[in-house]
Write a structure and sequence with these properties.
Layout: H1 3-6, H2 16-19, E1 27-33, E2 38-44, H3 47-53, E3 58-64, H4 73-91, E4 99-105, H5 115-121, H6 127-132, H7 134-140, E5 144-151, H8 153-156, H9 160-171, E6 175-184, E7 193-197, H10 216-219, E8 223-233, H11 234-244, H12 252-261, E9 265-266, H13 271-289
Parallel strand pairs: 4-5, 4-6, 6-8
Antiparallel strand pairs: 1-2, 2-3, 3-7, 7-8, 8-9
Helix pairs in contact: 4-13, 5-13, 11-12
Amino acid sequence: MNTNNYVRTDLAAESPVIENKQLSDGITVNENKLDIANISTVEITNQSGENAIGKPIGTYVTISFDKIWKLDDTTQKKLSDIICENIKKLANIKQEKLNILICGLGNRHITSDAVGPLVIKDITATSHVEKADAELFKLLHSHSVSAISPGVIGQTGIETLELIKGAANSVKPDVLIVIDALCSKSVDRLASTVQICNTGISPGSGIGNKRHAINKETVGIPVIAIGVPTMVSSSTLVYEALEKAEITDISDKLTEILENGKSFFVTLNENDVVISSLASLIANALNSALTLE
């Protein structure tokens, strides 16, 4: 049975190459275990590594933690600080003021896809203050921040990339930060993982609805992607159950079930609370990252 046919994931850390520790030339992995989170940093440095993992050359930081609803306020603040520091590192956000555009991808009317728009709701935008009152802007001790939630092509009829490029042409950002829901191959990742990478993103790729990539090549500026796994394909769940049962020779009927499962996705019962909590976690991390110390 070909795993690639049925297992979908947007997480670099879930690549079979990483999980089975079959690292080849062009791939390095660094694990950092903290008291509240595990941080896995995957570096892909050449074409060989890119081919092995199926992800573009770049850095992928996966932060894993306990289920978000189990974390108290103090732990969530510590976790937000960890995410903040990794965003600053990958985006190269330092003390000098930058012009930053934040984009929340996804459909705010579908809970499992709403994390991006919900993050934007809590972002502190400041670029308009800079234009209106330079002295007041200085008191904010903030980078110049603009934020948009462009929706999805089914709502707008316009490719998300084109809307982002239009916004970028207007505000002239130094860095673009995008937030989106991801697909994982494990239900254990839901509500307990954040991936940050410097390679951009292809909206909808995890659910087989791949749109134009949003990256440095298409936008013209560095793109940092923050992703949260919120769903698992049903074919992946069936496949994993068969794998755990050591069933490798499957019938035509099971194959049909797996094929049909590619179009269906599973989320958590607590999805409303989970997505809201994860969005707040990321928004707090971003607001901290974009504050000048």
